[in-house]
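Deviation from plan, reported transparently: flavin-adenine dinucleotide complex.
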Amino acid sequence: MCHDNARGGLNVTLLEKADNVGSVWRRHYDRLHLHTDRKHSGLPGMGMPRSYPLYPSREQLIEYLESYAARFDIRPVFNSTVSCIRRDGSQWRAETARGSINAPVMVVATGIADAPYRPSWPGSEIYQGLVVHSSEYRNPAPYAGKRVLVVGFGNSGGEIALDLATAGVDVALAVRGPVQILPRDLLGFPILAWAILYRRLPARLVDVINAPILRLAIGPIEKLGLRRAAKGPRQMVEEDGRVPLIDVGTLDKIRDGSIRICGGIDRLTPDGVVLADAECKKFDAIILATGFRPDLRQLIADVEGVFDRHGMPLVTGQATQAPGLYFCGQITSPTGQLREIAIEARRIAGLAKGYPGK
Ligand SMILES: Cc1cc2nc3c(=O)[nH]c(=O)nc-3n(C[C@H](O)[C@H](O)[C@H](O)COP(=O)(O)OP(=O)(O)OC[C@H]3O[C@@H](n4cnc5c(N)ncnc54)[C@H](O)[C@@H]3O)c2cc1C
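Because the crystal trials were delayed, the predicted structure below was used instead.
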């Protein structure tokens, strides 16, 4: 996008590889609603409409993003995939198939959705069923009458299994290790509101304080074939970047047997899997709800002290080791990703305004 931002006084060009606003949310599965509440998921300067429910739908988020762009006259330069970002004298250069653009300040807000992580197991090449990543899943219709294994107990895995079970599909969830589960609401408030309330306390302390009430709210999960992680939910996000499952009905379906829990996968066979406990199970389709692993070193060349060993930025929403280079919302936040993006965006705008040569 290319526009004069009257509010910030900055001349901003926004390069977007898709041809519409909110392209990633358009691709998410049909039944998705925000897991974070409306009041804490808005972007700077314009909250989500009060007419929206507490947990807006995917369609409502897209509508919100469209009206946000219209309200602030944000006009992305669509169909502009940035293939490489590199230093060019005192500026940064972003290269696209249609040419390059130089700017003193470069903000990378490419999200995570372009890097689905697809693990492979011995036997992957002989398995004859369908294997799809959660980012390709839309709704249960193609899976009617099939035996489906969903791999991974994150939010996508939990909700896709729920979606399938609700539609009467025979579904199992492969859960490799110990897990953490949070209710979406606790004592009448969104769980995110509690996380925000406790945000300044150390993770370990927050987890200790919350443990008894969360145990009560979630109930015993060991009976369901799940193991509770020793690390509390907040520590899990901060230390491992793993978001606990926010339960929107998955546990009920596990309790009533419509979602079966099984262990991790050892290997694939032509018509199913062998689990870690050596049990063989047949599945017509495997849905990999195994998350995303973006490696930004492929996009940004020749910078030092900016990335961790996985190619994720060491810091987001603040100055990096490379002058004028910023990342927005690239590290998982315990207090909601959209909320974090809004905070970081404001901060980056402030830093960019004060940046020499902007
Ligand atoms: C299934 C799912 C549910 C989620 N639910 C929530 C929730 O309830 N609450 C919450 O706070 N967060 C949620 N998140 C996290 C969510 O991804 C973020 O909150 C938010 O969408 C991230 O916004 P973003 O702009 O950083 O990234 P994205 O929405 O992923 O947007 C990145 C944009 O960059 C573009 N792009 C990427 N690479 C390039 C390139 N090389 N050149 C040009 N353009 C490029 C993409 O086309 C895309 O438009 C969810 C994530 C997933 C996957």
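Residues 15-18, 23-24, 28, 32, 34-36, 41, 81-82, 109-111, 113-114, 156, 299, 329, 336-338, 341 surround flavin-adenine dinucleotide (CB under 6 Å). We consider this an acceptable substitute for the interim report.
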